[in-house]
Design goal:
Order of helices and strands: EEEEEEHHEHEHEHEHEHEHHEHHEHEEH
Largest sheet: 5 strands, parallel
Distance between the termini: 35 Å
GO molecular function: cytosine deaminase activity; isoguanine deaminase activity; metal ion binding
CATH architecture of the largest domain: Alpha-Beta Barrel
Domain Amidohydrolase: 50-99, 200-404
InterPro entries: Amidohydro_3, Metal-dep_hydrolase_composite, Metal_Hydrolase, Metallo-hydrolase_Enzymes
Structural class: alpha/beta
Protein name: Amidohydrolase
Shape: globular
Strand content: 15-25%
CATH topology of the largest domain: TIM Barrel
Number of domains: 2
CATH superfamily of the largest domain: Metal-dependent hydrolases
CATH class of the largest domain: Alpha Beta
Number of helices: 13
Keywords: Hydrolase, Metal-binding
């Protein structure tokens, strides 16, 4: 249950705590009073009911810019046999071929969205596996879900295929048309192929012709020789591609010689790429070998990126599928784990922007705000400071949408049992 019940109608929340950067101020945490009226944050006025929040932390509702709603919650019927990346690829491919009908994708996607909504997320970008014929199955479902969830969670979709499936006049061009008709983002996974530059040039041409932003899965490996991120940055600069470009994962940077990695980051900064790190999934998959303790965390060079002015975000990635056996699209969990995994503490005071403002800027979502006139879409935690926030899961948080306290009851996993039994 929520740690307290708030009034209906207009009211004032006194004695809140929020990161100073969310109000454009220097420092760490500062006190804040918020007036809620007409579904918005309003200028305070006398005579409204007041609630003493006793230092509770408040955030705008979160943005989760890298998810896989089409894969989510298949683990009971498609468990990763060994926890490896290849085990995930193989298992998902078999499950997709056997089970990803419109009904199956829709039910799991809706389950995931209800979870995200209950946790306090207001905008999501999802990647959709798009090898034909799956593109013609999943994108129509996505369009239906986007309409169904309008006003609760704003949704974007990016197609997902391997770079060796990208060409200017093959099936991928038809996928790009589906993406454009869906108001989506053009995406693919990059890894070393002999004609990488040719295929990426085709990719950027297809995106530019359709006016699409780009979103890549990049170098999701601990092999230091894998460096497709550099090629993406070089081609953005060479072609003048001017739509937003996001690169996710970028794991191999962390194991490359520093001079090489830093030279790539300089190019990434010059090209204006957005980076999204997925620390929970990458810690799960990377450097996994039977009987051997992992030697690194899988996370990319987020501190070095921020030092170069690169727009860095964090996101959930996979949930209860072969790429990550856990997770629930809970951005407070992502923020807590990213802080621990990537040592965001004892660092700059504005890392919270990587879960709010930065992903909004990367994806074009409405910027989160606590200023008067902004929607009263808020997440309030009983915690009064960072150590309290990260020490517990904040399962009694309050979520306001349009100024109204929502029911945060999570969907029961048993709802999906019939899909698992069919397997």
């Amino acid at each position: 249950m929520d740690f307290r019940v708030l009034p209906s109608g207009a009211f004032v929340l006194r004695n809140l705590t929020t990161p100073a950067c969310l109000l454009g101020q220097p420092g760490d945490l500062i006190p804040l009073d918020l007036c809620i009226e007409g579904g918005q944050i309003a200028a305070p006025r006398p005579g409204l009911p007041e609630v003493d929040m006793k230092g509770a932390m408040v955030f705008p509702a979160f943005i989760d810019m890298h998810t896989h709603l089409d894969k989510g919650h298949i683990w009971p019927r498609a468990a990763n046999p060994d926890g490896s990346f290849m085990g995930a690829l193989t298992t998902v491919g078999a499950d997709r071929a056997a089970h990803w009908s419109p009904e199956d994708v829709r039910a799991r996607m809706d389950f995931a969205l209800r979870s995200a909504y209950a946790h306090g997320t207001r905008a999501i970008r999802t990647h959709l596996d798009s090898l034909p014929p799956q593109d013609a199955i999943s994108f129509p479902v996505f369009r239906e879900m986007r309409q169904d969830w309008r006003g609760r969670i704003e949704l974007q979709a990016s197609c997902l295929v391997g770079i060796d499936n990208v060409s200017g006049n093959g099936p991928y061009a038809k996928t790009a048309d589906i993406v454009a008709a869906s108001g989506g983002v053009l995406g693919c996974v990059t890894y070393p192929v002999a004609d990488l530059r040719v295929r990426l040039l085709d990719f950027f041409r297809l995106a530019a012709e359709r006016g699409l932003a780009a979103d890549f899965h990049v170098d999701e490996t601990g092999d230091a020789s894998v460096a497709t991120l550099r090629v993406i940055a070089e081609l953005v600069l060479e072609t003048g591609f001017d739509a937003p470009v996001t690169v996710g994962h970028c794991c191999s940077l962390a194991v490359q010689p520093e001079a090489e990695a830093f030279a790539t980051l300089d190019l990434v900064a010059k090209a204006g790429l957005n980076v999204v790190s997925l620390p929970m999934c990458n810690m799960y998959l990377q450097d996994r070998s039977p009987g051997r303790t992992p030697r690194w965390r899988g996370v990319t060079l987020v501190h070095e990126m921020r030092a170069r002015g690169i727009n860095v975000s964090f996101a959930s990635d996979n949930t209860r599928d072969p790429f990550y056996a856990y997770g629930d699209l809970d951005m407070i969990e992502v923020m807590r784990e990213a802080t621990r995994i990537a040592h965001l503490d004892h660092s700059r005071a504005d890392w919270v922007q990587a879960f709010l403002t930065n992903p909004a800027r990367a994806c074009g979502f409405e910027a989160p705000s606590l200023a008067p006139g902004a929607p009263a879409d808020l997440v309030i935690s009983r915690a009064r400071g960072w150590t309290e926030l990260f020490a517990r899961p904040q399962s009694d948080r309050i979520v306001l949408r349009g100024g109204r306290q929502i029911d945060r009851t999570l969907p029961d996993y048993a709802e999906l049992d019939h899909l698992m039994r069919q397997a």
